[in-house]
Amino acid sequence: MFTELNSILSSSPDSVTPGEFILVSDRQSDASFLIHHFLSFYLRSRCKVIFLGLVQSFRHYSAVSQRLGVSLTQAKEKGQLVFMEGLKESLSVLIPQADNTESQAMNFLRDPPVGLRSLYEFVRSCAVGSGRAEDGAEEWGPPVLLVDDVSVLLSLGVDAGAVLDFSHYCRAAVCSQMKGNMVMLVRCNGEEEEEEDGEEGAEALLKGLTHQCSLNLHVQGLPTGYCKDIHGQVEVCWKRRQGDGPHTQRNLFQYKVHDKGASFFPRGTSSAVL
Amino acid sequence: MCNNIDVIISNMAAPVSGMGEAPAERLPINSTSFQKKTRSKLVSIPGTRPSVQNGQLLVSTGVTSLDYLLGGGLAVGTVLLIEEDRYDSYSRMILKYFLAEGVVCRHELFVATAQDNPDDILQELPAPILDDVAVPKAVEQPRLTGEPQDSLDAMKIAWRYQHLPKVQSALASSSRFGHYYDVSKTMEAEIRQAAKCHRFCLPDHVTPSSTAHRLESYSALLKSLQEVIHREGFDLAAPMSKSRNILRVGLHSLGSALWGDDLCCHDKPRHRHALTTFLYGLRALLRSSLSVAVVTLPSHLIQDRALMGSITRLCDNAIALESFKGSERETNPLYKDYHGLLYVRQVPHLNCLASQLPDHKDLAFKLKRKQFSIERLHLPPDLSETVSRVSRGELASACGPSASGTKNLDF
């Protein structure tokens, strides 16, 4: 959990605003450090967390969370965290063997055009299952869905439209029905002005998800070039739907990622410069 | 006799034992190949060492400057993507260094090609310099003979810069890891045959003319790789009874048309996700076993930059080579010291938040007989004679018309 980011977003583990869809996006950069922040943030605020770790192994997230002060193995044992390790489950689908018991979640790998229905069913069963309090089990807060990351589904052959449907269904189930939150990471590679046909999938996905979300953290490299002390800039964009009509508010910060966290500062005030 | 065995074992283990770190970072048994420092049963594998940054198990790529660029070495369980240069000369060279290092460290090899026999690559491996005395020195200032060193080190004019460190353009770290190879000789057959090598030649597994060829070549490769990992015991879940070893996987020219893919042939390929799904499966296999992979890819044939971006993101480390051969840069005096440029496209952050980004982004490489060196690109000083030399005639004519200045002016 990055304390400076908490103050920027005016959020704290004690009071979590329900029903939020936070989109973390990056362009030619790596925004996965923000996923680690949200993972430790929601675990500290005692929500039930469903994590779809599609690109890295469990050990990677566990090691980073340890440095941020949260133990994933303990959370998993207590039932607070449901971790779906995409890499491990995908092997049983990609290399079919007769005696394998496969989980249904990564079924879309067998026939990508079909869509992500089985993945959504998995998410829904985890989220709804948290409503029932079992005897002796601890009561956790509303469910939170974290996806790292959504663009890899495009590389695995799923259509951008199917991914948008999946995120919409998950938002309806987790955010509206269960009053939980959702955080997704989407990665984009091209320049914003280029209109390449090959980028249709990724750009359309980014635009669609930006439209659906309520808070967007967009990470980019510095427009002036590569710098070792400032790793990039983060644009924080709120969309407030309640109150006095739609009102967007944008803030721009620069950041640097350390071993144990990340520091955020307004443009031009990096410690390397001042 | 016991003393000798101790010496041999300590030589095979991490060479940084002099730093006072007792062999604490070794390989505990867990579900993936990324390890943290724990106190469980310890096994040390020859040819590997733990990373000083995050305790990862590292192997050498065979090229010491490349090891330095990647943060000390290639982490076990990751993929290195090399975007080939136009004639596939230097990328093939790095692949051969990687496999040769595996032979010398007694790791097992797995080589896959689409058309050539894997034995062709294996027979071209460079010969190791086994009793190597040559340790690369830092760039030395040229010295006049007969002058004692002290007077040269004390600067007379630029004495304020005396305490600054000397610029070291060649990338190397202080502790040596990996071996050196002589490119002019090939590895002797008996050394090569001592290493266990698994081969995958695509025509043996999938007939090129079958309709299923297009999509099945990658899944056949993945299946074959998983079989080897299972059978030879590289799985992390396998029991710890016998000694562990590392499997080095070399995949040559993935994505070319010979693998049945049309990524290189069309602007909008129809089965764009065949290669990316394979890379995803490869990452899944590597993370759960003691293996490391080097993949070369002819990226200059792929027109779709977005696809190249997703391929790069699915590999952990990625570098691109651009050789000067055949281009107009070959005769450009600025680049006369180098054979090509090297770009670092991606460096991973594994088990930690921050990645070790390289200090400089402009790197060039040079293949010498005993070393493949990667250096920071330096432009040579401009020593041409026509630069900034104002002739006396021009000076005089600028001051006003005089007798000697009329040779340039012709009124």
Features:
heterodimer; A: 274 residues; alpha/beta; nine-stranded mixed β-sheet; globular; B: 411 residues; Rossmann fold; three-stranded antiparallel β-sheet; 11 helices; 26% helix; disordered N terminus; cytoplasm (chain B); Elongator complex protein 4 (chain B); Elongator_complex_protein_4 (chain B)
Shape of chain A: globular
Neighbour order of strands in the largest sheet of chain A? 3-2-4-5-1-6-7-8-9
Rg of chain A computed from alpha carbons, rounded to a whole number of angstroms: 19 Å
CATH architecture of chain B: 3-Layer(aba) Sandwich
Distance between the termini of chain B: 97 Å
Largest sheet of chain A: 9 strands, mixed
The CATH fourth-level homologous superfamily of chain B: P-loop containing nucleotide triphosphate hydrolases
* Percentage of residues in helical conformation of chain A: 25-40%
The strands making up the biggest β-sheet of chain B line up spatially as 8-5-9-10-4-11-12-13-14
Helix and strand pattern of chain A: HEHEHHEHHEHHEHEEEE
- Helix fraction bin of chain B: 25-40%
Count of individual beta strands of chain A: 9
CATH T-level fold name of chain B:
Rossmann fold
Q: Pick out the low-confidence regions of chain A.
A: none
- Radius of gyration of chain B, CA atoms, in whole angstroms: 26 Å
Structural class of chain A: alpha/beta
Number of distinct helices of chain A: 9
